[in-house]
Amino acid sequence: MLENYVSGKWKSGQGDGEPLLDPVLGNELARVSTKGIDMGAALDYARRVGGPALRAMTFAERAKMIDAIAKLFIAKRASYMEIARDNSGNTERDASFDIDGAIGTLRYFAKIGSSLGDTKYVRDGEPFALGRDASLQAIHLATPRTGAAIHINAFNFPAWGTWEKAAVALLAGVPVVSKPAAATALLAWQMVKDVVDANLLPDGAFSLIAGGIGDLLDHVEANDVIAFTGSAATAARVRGHQRVVELGVRVNCEADSLNAIILGPDVADLGQFTDEIVREMTLKSGQKCTAIRRILVPRDRISGAAEALQAALTNIKVGDPRREGVVMGPVVTKKQQTSVREGIADLRKEASVLFEGKSIEADDPERGAFVAPMLLQSNDSANASAVHDIEVFGPVATLMAYDSVDDALQLAARGKGSLVTSIVTADEALGMNAALQLAQSNGRVMILNESVRAANPGHGVVMPSCVHGGPGRAGGGEELGGLRGLWFYLQRTAIQGPDAQIKALAQNGAVLAV
User: Fold this and answer.
1) pTM value?
2) Of 164, 289, 391, 479, catalytic
3) For the residues 471-477, what does the mean pLDDT come to?
């Protein structure tokens, strides 16, 4: 039974708990339970003990602390890779993506956080006069919120999801109460345990809820913040929780997203386009909030695009990540496998199957949570609805024909809010115009051509220097974005007063340059 780390102690939940399974072999690895855990006391301890300890530190000191966590994870990386394989069914590529993403994000925020120096609050702009003369001045300052940061994470990135949120909150000076998804919690739990054992954080600065959320939200206070990643349905329940609404608790959500890629009519070579799609369909077995779900292609290029994608997907070997040559592992649980299959069935009501992988490299494929890559083609792009409404969280994407660039942009917008859309084009005017139009329905837009191919981290890669989130269905939230991410955890206040005092306050605050 994995213990919960709350109120500065490791505490076991009661009852049988929920099993964590190897999604290839079906073996039970551990159990988690939060039954009997006093969630109110956990939050109170974070606010009362962890918060003051973090706020007593400067930004530079917090940055150094975050860097020490990153260095610890680098030293422990090999053991984390094994856990990711066993509990999430990750291939080496998948595990690296998650674990190195966590390490890279921590190191990034440690570096930029150190630039804020030995200060404890930030200023937004310069002092300015309010009256007829300069005697009465004002300045906008931002100080760490005195509540706790409640982080509710998804199952697909137990390492990255946990630490990209924690890095920003800890740098801001706000204690974290983290709840990883139970099914893949083993990696997050081990990383937290290693940090606790190494004594890298002040008491109360980090708490771990290893299991169900229980009545955690019943105990939130007005100065707490909630950062959620998961389904739109769960996001709605978090936002609509009675206490969250009554107290006006600050909430950031990243939810469902039907991301797209558009092939520009000018592109002759499909190599970059095809590579981007195949990577997004198969990395993490398609279990990425930023993965490509809709593929928009000029109508006269559909056959060529379909052939190129089919040929590339044929080379994807699916199976046990312990086997040599396996490129893609299972989805995380049998429950998720069922969900993906149900979603495929809904998509197939409006689409035809162009490609479906058949062979599974495993001793007992039926025992594992395997889903082979599937490429569909919409039967009627103009009138289809399911492809714009249903996010199948697995290795599945749908090819759609468009008749003009405006048509493609309208089809992309029918996702009702996405995290990211990419357009592959060498036409500079087309790329810039499309980006501005796509910006209204996307948190991020990528313009891709051969000039950036070597530097491109990938359509689905969340860079800590760029904002992550999206409007509408994608949750309406925004996180990361370099130092912009701190604003969620800080309280911005207009301070008005005598000229000398306002200028002194401004001088002692770091400039939050973004």
Assistant:
1) 0.93
2) 289
3) 92
